[in-house]
Amino acid sequence: MSNPSTEAWPEGVARHVLDRVDSTNAEAFRRGPDLTGPAWIMAYRQEAGRGRRGRAWRDPQGNFAATLVLRPEGGAGDAARLSFVTALAVHDALRTLCGPQPGFALKWPNDVLLNGGKLSGILLESTGAGDRLGLLAIGIGINLSEAPDTAEVEAQAMRPVSLLAETGMTVTPDEMLDALAPAFDHWHRQMRAYGFGPVRNAWLARAAKLGETIVARTGTAEFTGRFDGIDDSGALILTGPRGRHAIPAADIHFGG
Fold it and tell me: Which CATH class is domain 14-205?
């Protein structure tokens, strides 16, 4: 499909497109020491993709698998906020390519939903320790053409969906990258110039279940409450019978 409204490729950002790779994040770390600036690494086939907490990410032909690798400014907290920049960029790039589909939404912290199913996942990995990060790899998987079968995902996981099945629209990985790189550059520049506030507000404007009751499960506890937003660190704000909680990391379940 043609897309004349996509912005120009961001200046100073490299682009590497591979036929196949084990993992775009792994390739990013292999190439990272030799990079002179940010770089996108995309593969038409990713054979050992990873999701959060070491979960497998299946990547059929025609889906999008790419990593942006960069040397982050600031510490680990600043790098973590880039997950919200990335989710916004994926959301807005999809809207650029597909038009104002009402079904796109963001699920904390960084999943992109379509018609209530999981369309895209984002994985941040870094080298270094504490507040001295060396390289940051932002891996992005998007089910453009095919979604995994529900039997392939873990119990209670959100239903996976594909763009093609839900909308009938065909978007190629190259078209996705052409739209995504400028969208990320836009929101990254917004955060660098004005702080996290504009990114947080834009993310919340696209958030699924804001103001509704959700369940947050950490490794040791479960919280049920009203989703009241995110704080300056990106932590989930949940208000329930035991009061107001800021939860930095959890698996979110909508129920129903």
Answer: alpha beta
Enumerate residues 6+ apart whose C-beta is below 8 A from 168.
none
The structural architecture, per CATH, of the domain 213-253 is Roll (2.30)
Is residue 170 within 8 Å of 2, Cβ to Cβ? Answer: no
| Residue 43 phi, psi dihedral angles, 5° rounding | -130, 140
Per-residue pLDDT of the chain (256 residues; tens, 9 = 90+): 334 456 899 999 999 999 999 999 999 999 998 999 999 999 999 987 665 545 555 667 899 999 999 998 878 888 899 999 999 999 999 999 998 877 999 999 999 999 999 999 999 999 886 667 889 999 999 999 999 876 555 556 688 999 999 999 999 999 999 999 999 999 999 999 999 999 999 999 999 999 999 999 998 889 999 999 999 999 999 999 989 999 999 999 987 5
Q: 132 forms bridges with which residues in the sheet?
A: 129
Label residues 209-223 b or e (16+ Cβ within 10 Å = b).
Answer: bbeeebbbeeeeeeb
In DSSP terms, 215 is beta-bridged to 224, 253
CA-to-CA separations, 44 to 8, 137, 202, in angstroms, rounded: 22, 18, 31
Domain ranges of the chain: 14-205, 213-253
